[in-house]
Design brief:
- Two copies of one chain form a homodimer.
- Chain A starts with 17 loop residues before the first helix and ends in a 14-residue tail after the last helix.
- In chain A, a hairpin with a 3-residue loop joins β2 and β3.
- The first copy, chain A, is of the alpha/beta class.
- Chain A is built from nine helices and ten strands.
- The N terminus and C terminus of chain A are likely disordered.
- Chain A folds into three domains: 71 residues, Winged helix-like DNA-binding domain superfamily/Winged helix DNA-binding domain (Arc Repressor Mutant, subunit A); 109 residues, Rossmann fold; 33 residues.
- Chain A is globular and about 65 Å long.
- At the A-B interface, α1, α5, β9 and α9 of A face α1, α5, β9 and α9 of B.
- The structure holds a DNA duplex.
- Chains A, B: GO terms for molecular function: DNA binding; DNA-binding transcription factor activity.
- Chains A, B: InterPro entries: CoA-bd, NAD(P)-bd_dom_sf, Rex_actinobacterial-type, Rex_DNA-bd_C_dom, Tscrpt_rep_Rex, WH-like_DNA-bd_sf, WH_DNA-bd_sf.
- Chains A, B: Modulates transcription in response to changes in cellular NADH/NAD(+) redox state.
Amino acid sequence: MATGRTHRPATRSRGIPEATVARLPLYLRALTALSERSVPTVSSEELAAAAGVNSAKLRKDFSYLGSYGTRGVGYDVEYLVYQISRELGLTQDWPVVIVGIGNLGAALANYGGFASRGFRVAALIDADPAMAGKPVAGIPVQHTDDLEKIIKDNGVSIGVIATPAGAAQQVCDRLVAAGVTSILNFAPTVLSVPDGVDVRKVDLSIELQILAFHEQRKAGEEAEAVLEAEAAAAAAKETGKGPDGDVPAVMPA
Amino acid sequence: MATGRTHRPATRSRGIPEATVARLPLYLRALTALSERSVPTVSSEELAAAAGVNSAKLRKDFSYLGSYGTRGVGYDVEYLVYQISRELGLTQDWPVVIVGIGNLGAALANYGGFASRGFRVAALIDADPAMAGKPVAGIPVQHTDDLEKIIKDNGVSIGVIATPAGAAQQVCDRLVAAGVTSILNFAPTVLSVPDGVDVRKVDLSIELQILAFHEQRKAGEEAEAVLEAEAAAAAAKETGKGPDGDVPAVMPA
DNA sequence: TAATGTGAAGTTTTTCACAGCG
DNA sequence: CGCTGTGAAAAACTTCACATTA
């Protein structure tokens, strides 16, 4: 889902598959919950259930990080929390700026999940002069004019764009020019960035559209199921044989 | 990224790959923009660029929908908009409810991208009695007590959960019991749902963590690059041969 | 003995490359 | 000729199943 063509193409690095990286935060969340309940160890089966994946996948994922488990026992919760945090780079502090303090930007500024994971909202930036100085989530909003200075003064390398679509590319360009190399984009636009800059996007409307697709298909299947049931009933009448576990098998030509 | 174990396992339906479905909204957005600029046709190359994918992938994706292009010319914008909309089920009206009208819920209620895509915010629901009756985005907030009735009266099949993590599963259960079969979850929890219910999740903190992983790796690579450059320089001094296109090849043991 | 770690098999997704068609 | 549509190859990802080991 990340856009920017990224990282060295083939050279071996520690090569953790992207799909695995995307699941590490999930495992981390589940592990953190266990840690808070002072659970000392957990099996792949249990942890997988808590994270909503299957256990083979989880074990394979962990195998890319190293051998952190104990056969016959499971994984040490605290140790795993540390290892995954380190792998994700969460043992360091990441100052982020949020640009565009509308409804969504404000929601993000107030979102607790950031602070708890090593992310610190270093600044809020908006183009509306009327917003300047107003505190949101306890942080005063600053004006876009100072964007470059803010980035540099705070050593920000991660930027969050929550502006309207029309402003997103321009904001993105300025962020990148000022030194930001990772961008989380909430604006419904494709951002173009130079090589070496990562973009991830979150598009609320896209998620709903994907749900709608499946929803529609469910409706279609229901209708189909009725037809199949009717066909099966008819067949049963015909042959005197009731329906059983087998699929009705409507073979297409 | 969808969680719920979904749909018939193997039976052939119209079998559009999930990865393709996830990109259709992207294409649709790009096409809509072209349509607004009254562009009549577009090539796979152009459209792919606008959507941020490569053209082979786009053509393959479209091939699952049918043959909607014209060789030597490209795709008719309006026609494709219609076909994709239909495929995604956006030609019908989808009433959605948003549960949890905090910062994020309010942002979602105000988000313009919904209405423009066939999604209609049918109701806003919150557990705080003080919120009841207050209008958000012009829609009065209703109390959780009436959730079931609201779902049924409005024929809602898609629910958005924007509550705190602690309340999410309970809200989810009630939504499902009331007949909702697709859920977009913003709460940082794994929801468990019965078969036949789709869940997609959006986790802001997870996206940032993935960015942090790559950001960290960039920092590592920079250091590595410096070392490699130094090594190359040293080698050049040694042999009198300048560095060329080949990889420095630091073979591990 | 219970549960990890992992080759190997299976599946899905992406990319290639070009035949075919307007 | 230019661009689509698509088999076939390649790559990425998931699942299986079991040898291995604390």
